[in-house]
Write a structure and sequence with these properties.
mainly beta, 15 strands, 11% helix
Length: 193
């Protein structure tokens, strides 16, 4: 009996610590926000890229950056959407597109072995005063097989001050790359406007 009660207590404690996350959730990010907020309304937005990067998103989720806002560093959100229910990165509000400045990071926006993403209405740059190997948006598949549905639409990607290497590890405004020993590829890629 003691073992059963102890086991039940441990399971309840583990469930209480697990981060609940429902599909089809909209998250808001605002430079004036606070990462201790729940992020699910314009009155309780998150603040930093670090908070977005620490979250695993799922089908139908939306990550909306405030128009006119700017962030510095790499945007590297986790998770994958599903067919018919992709994860979307977009803007909210009126004004200029939200700016994500990689400031010399390898990639300003980076997806690794992820699928069913739509990235739209952002301004992306990657400049810190000198040239090095870097990208604006990088989508990588490695030892994974086929990754589906990556749409990059209506973004302004500029000032990615890379080097002159143009190979599978080269600098680029937008780079899709497959690596590893297991054949990997992309299906249903759209880069528009």
């Amino acid at each position: 009996l003691f073992f059963i009660i102890s086991f039940a207590f441990i399971v309840i404690a583990m469930l209480a610590q697990a981060k609940a996350h429902a599909a089809n959730t909209t998250y808001y990010v605002d430079p004036a926000g606070n990462d201790s907020n729940n992020g699910t309304s314009t009155s309780t937005p998150w603040k930093t890229l670090a908070k977005v990067n620490a979250t695993t998103f799922t089908s139908g989720d939306k990550i909306l950056f405030k128009s006119g806002g700017s962030w510095t560093g790499q945007l590297n959100p986790k998770g994958s959407g599903t067919s018919g229910s992709p994860i979307t990165i977009d803007k909210y509000g009126t004004g200029n597109k939200p700016l994500i400045d990689g400031n010399g990071a390898g990639s300003t926006l980076y997806l690794y072995n992820q699928q069913y993403w739509e990235i739209q209405n952002l301004e992306i740059k990657n400049y810190n005063g000198y040239n090095s190997n870097r990208r604006g948006i990088e989508v990588t598949s490695k030892d994974i097989g086929t990754l589906n549905h990556i749409y990059i639409k209506n973004n302004n990607i500029h000032d990615v001050w890379g080097d002159n290497v143009k190979d599978t590890n080269g600098s680029a405004g937008i780079l899709f790359v497959s690596r590893g020993t297991v054949p990997s590829n992309f299906n249903d890629v759209l880069i528009d406007n």
